[in-house]
Amino acid sequence: MGLYLIYFAILLIVPLWAQSRVKRAYKKYSKVPSSSGLTGAEVATRILHDNGMYDVRVEESRGVLTDHYDPRSKSVRLSSQNFHGTSIAGAAIAAHEVGHAFQDEQAYAFLRFRHALVPIASLGSNMSFFIIFAGLIFGLNNLILLGIIFMAGAVLFQLVTLPVEFDASNRAMDQVISLGIINNNEERETKRVLNAAAFTYVAAAAVAVAELARFILIYLGNRE
């Protein structure tokens, strides 16, 4: 009973807490202007150009917190508020996405590994539950095992995402400090925004591992 309570706490509470944490941090620091007065677009462009990366575009993306780096088109895409705004949150997020552009440029090993896992992760996310539940319904333990293998690919993707995101945040901090985009008094706030965002990936990985562990236990129980 205790293990099930821990499982459901991880499955339900942790993701909600992570999402609320990032929303609170973003809401708070999106209202705090940065000392540099640069928009998110200007922050991203400055970091890119200072590092000789003139082939990466900085574009506006619709929606809220839709910021991302697209390696296919070599584009840093920032949500409208961060693209045009001059807040600490916008500067932090813009720098973080540029961090992914650096990883792509330098063929960062974990990023390349994550890209290679995309087809496996997509298949695992879409198919694993159907395969596992079909195995449970028809009492086919080998089918459950097959579903677990598919799910393991998706879980591996989540785990590999963690060093990718933390590395991008570390690169972001190095750049905004070295280029004077933030001052010493703003370092703590910038880290809070980046840490809150990173924790959502930690939460997602924890949920994925908990799900995988549950089905592995079911599989082992059926074998006995």
Structure description:
The protein is mainly α and 224 residues long. It has one domain. The chain contains 7 helices and 3 strands. It has helices at 2-29, 40-50, 80-84, 88-105, 109-138, 141-178, 187-223; strands spanning 57-61, 68-70, 75-79. It has a 3-stranded mixed beta sheet. A hairpin with a 4-residue loop joins strand 2 and strand 3 (75-79). The longest helix is centred in the C-terminal third of the chain and has 38 residues, at 141-178. The mean pLDDT is 93.
Can you summarize the main beta sheet? 3 strands, mixed
**The number of domains:** 1
Q: How many strands?
A: 3
Side-by-side strand order of the widest sheet: 1-3-2
Counting helices, strands and paired strands, the structural category is mainly alpha
Beta-strand residue fraction? 5-15%
Which radius of gyration do the C-alpha atoms yield? 20 Å
Protein name: Zn-dependent membrane protease YugP
Pfam family, one: Zn_peptidase_2
Transmembrane segments: 6-22, 116-138, 144-164, 198-220
Keywords: Hydrolase, Membrane, Protease, Transmembrane, Transmembrane helix
